[in-house]
Amino acid sequence: MTVRPGFTGSPLDRADRLRDDPAAFDTALADPRARLLRLDGIDPVLDDAGRLCWTTLADRQAGGALLLLGLHDGAPRFAELRYDMPEAPTRSHSIFPLLDRMPASEAASYAGARSLIDWHLRHRFCARCGSADTPIFRAGWGRRCADCGAEHYPRVDPVVIMLAVHGDSVLVARQPRFPAGRYSALAGFVEPGESVEEAVIREIGEETGVAVRDVRYVASQPWPFPSTLMIACVATADATAITLDTTELEDALWVDRAGVAAAMAHADGAPFLPPPPFAIAHSLFRWWLDETAF
Questions:
Q1: Tens of pLDDT along 111-137?
Q2: Can you give the three-state secondary structure of 195-263, one letter per residue?
Q3: Residues 131, 110: Cα–Cα separation, whole Å
Q4: What pLDDT score was predicted for residue 294?
Q5: Residue 10 falls within a domain, yes or no?
Q6: What are the pLDDT digits (tens) for 155-175?
Q7: Contact at 8 Å (CB) between 271 and 255?
Q8: Which residue segment(s) compose the domain that 207 sits in?
Q9: How far apart, in whole angstroms, are the C-alpha atoms of residue 277 and residue 255?
Q10: pTM score, two decimals?
C-alpha cells in the first residue's frame, strides 16, 4: 500500500531559490498574479468545496509582514503575519471541522502557512541574547537578530507514532482529552541523542510497559499543531501484558485485525472510534490492515 498521509501533497513550489534573492522577492510582490491566503485569525477561510480562499495583496493589513509560501503554477502565494494574532493553540475546537472538509493538498498548503506564522509568533526574541529586535529575512523563512547577528530558522519537532504488533493484534490507546470512544496509536517526542527506533521502543515501554523490537518505518506527516513531524512506525511485541502510565494515558488495549477493520469502517459494535482521516494514525491503521491482508 502507498501511504498518503494528511497534510501532504501541496501543489506549492516552495521556491527556496527566491528566499535569498531580495530582488526576486520584490518581483514576486509586484506580480499581478500574487495572492494572499485568507485567514480567520489563524484558521483557514474555505469556499464551498473546502478549498482555501485567496485574495490580492491589496487586502493585506497595515503593519503585516508577507511570508512567501511558494509558487502555484508560477504565481506567488503569500501568508500574512500580524503580531496581533494570538498564538495558535495546540488544539483548536474550530480547526478540526474545517480539516474534515479540506482536500489533502489544500490542508498541506495550509499546514505550512500555519506552522510558519506560529513559529514567528513564538520566536520574536533572539534565543542567543534575548533581543526583541529580530527582523524577518529570507522572504519570511528566518529572523536575524539586529543586536548579536544570530540567525534563527523555523524548526520542526520529531514525534514518533507507532503500532506495537503482536500476532494479529495491535496496541491502541487513548488520552483523556480524546473524544469519547476514540483510540489511536501511541506517540511521543524524540529526545535529544535518540534515534527514531530508540524513541519508539522507549515510548511504548514507558507508556504501556510493553517491550518491542524490530522497529520499521512506514511514513511521515507534518502536523501543524504547532509544528511537528510525525514519524509513523510499527514494532513487534513478544508479550501483551500492559502496565499503563496513567499520567499519559487513560486506557490501552490490544485489538485484533477484525476489530481494527470494524473501527475504520465505523461499523456498529466496533471496539473504538478511529482517528480522523487527516491524522497519520488513520493512515497507519489503514496501512497495517492492508499489510496484514496477505
A1: 999 999 999 999 999 999 999 999 999
A2: CHHHHHHHHHHHHHCCCEEEEEEEEEEEECCCCEEEEEEEEEECCCCCCCCCCCCCEEEEEEHHHHHHH
A3: 30
A4: 35
A5: no
A6: 999 999 999 999 999 999 999
A7: yes
A8: 157-291
A9: 19
A10: 0.94
